Write the structure tokens for this entry.
Amino acid sequence: VTGSKTAKVACLLILLTGGSLTRGSAAAVLPQDDAHMHMGVSTCASSNCHASSVPEEQSNVQQSEYTTWLFHDRHAKAFRTLESDESKQIARKLGIGKPWQAPLCLNCHADNVAIDRRGPEFQISDGVGCEACHGGSQLWLSRHTLTPYDAERNHVDGMYPTDNLAERTKLCASCHVGNSQKFATHEIMGAGHPRLGFELDAFTQRQPAHYQVDGDYIARKFNDTGVQRMLVGTAATAQSMASNLTGVLLDHEQGYPEISLFDCYSCHHSLSDVRWQPRINAPNLKPGTVILNDGVFRVLAALLGAIDRPAEVKLLRAIRQLHTASQVSIADVREAALALGEQAEQAQSLFAQRNIDKGIILKMLNRVVQLGIDGGLHDYIAAEHAVMCLDTLSQQLDETPKLTQLLDQAYALLANDDDYSAQRLRMVMRKYAKYQ
Ligand code: HEC
Ligand code: HEC
Ligand code: HEC
Ligand code: HEC
């Protein structure tokens, strides 16, 4: 995490988003596994379709999506990354041959659909192209421009419901968190792959926008606001993480679960940096225990508490249960993670349906800040997620130099995960609390 988000303060009034947030939510199949032919980026890229050099004023969509993606979006370079020296080194250490040919890498760095689902113009070297997010266009390519706009038909035709925040998060998380089919394992990390972290709003703001949430967008789709992205995104990310704790990743061939499911920093820090103390939400864990990565769950609980205290208490209990289970057996972990996943799902639909007004935003801000003051951000992963949430919430306040300074200070403390100090973040959080 480097700088703070750049987007301007969005409108304060978060419109009621109604049912549209859950549109197309009948458990959408991820593009990589859909039943459709992926026709290739070039089929989207003619100048009167999506390759205009500047956004078209007259059109509902920008029509310059391809140009934005090609020149500014890291997804367009994801395949090229596999040709870098860094990737070659990772691949050498893993003994997997050429990284740009290894399914292990291609599954996240390209639209790696089965050969029989690649159209004549499909190029694997396009990296994370349009259809890696929007779904195979075999059926919708010729029909998605028909008027009037028909989201239902597009979804039936195989267009992935990126206009549903929970489904969108599941999509991003499939590569940015990993799922049972593809995961940035500790083996890959050990070979030098960067650690993955994800918060939907921060990553949406970091990705060069190829769509604009304006009047016609809201009329056709829904009011895609930063706060909703952060809330539904955090809950849906937690759901993905809980799901990873129920599946095959627990049955690692070495006899212990996949190491990347644990808090990286419970193992990785200097021995002279003696920092152990009872975790506020896992008081029974003994010193020296390797702790499951629960950072996002705890931040979710704090956010949830602003609108539903009993649900927060229940979620906190489920997190404690997960830690207790980790001291018993893998079967117990599975059961606890299942319960945790259900609660994350409930939080996600609660957030999607609730009108999040300014009062709630302030309450959420206070609760995240309080989590830091209470010592709940003792680990880097929770801190990283919390600060990104705080950023989104703060964008709903009047922008002042002081507020910007506080956020910058918080981000600065995250700049280097090796010397993250919960104590220093706590001091910034205290100032935050006073600021309001
Ligand atoms: C098919 C896998 C895949 C999907 C789906 C995906 N990403 Fe990515 N994303 C990547 C890869 C791989 C990279 C790194 C590309 C590189 O630099 O080589 C990346 C990079 C990014 C970056 C740049 C990160 C940085 O450090 O600046 C952002 C932002 C991002 N993705 C946001 C998203 C969002 C938001 C979604 C969901 C709407 C999403 N991604 C969906 C694979 C994916
Ligand atoms: C589970 C999905 C996943 C898998 C599997 C995966 N990557 Fe990545 N990789 C990502 C994402 C997402 C990013 C961007 C992380 C970010 O910036 O937040 C990334 C970033 C990278 C980067 C850093 C890019 C940069 O510009 O900083 C390299 C290098 C890389 N991956 C190489 C590989 C190689 C080689 C493999 C195969 C051994 C591989 N990746 C497998 C998802 C994955
Ligand atoms: C990393 C994922 C990702 C990739 C890659 C991607 N998109 Fe998108 N796209 C999104 C998301 C998220 C949205 C916003 C949600 C929505 O409107 O469905 C979106 C929205 C759109 C829209 C809708 C704008 C509107 O006003 O309704 C168009 C058109 C579009 N993308 C075209 C493209 C094209 C063309 C490409 C390839 C050049 C592409 N996208 C690549 C994720 C992606
Ligand atoms: C259970 C303890 C444990 C956890 C949890 C853990 N690691 Fe490791 N990690 C190790 C061990 C052991 C090594 C091998 C160290 C060595 O060879 O010197 C290692 C090696 C690494 C290396 C290579 C370092 C080197 O010097 O070559 C990286 C990078 C890494 N881990 C990243 C991570 C990330 C990212 C996470 C969290 C997603 C994580 N680790 C979680 C124990 C752990």
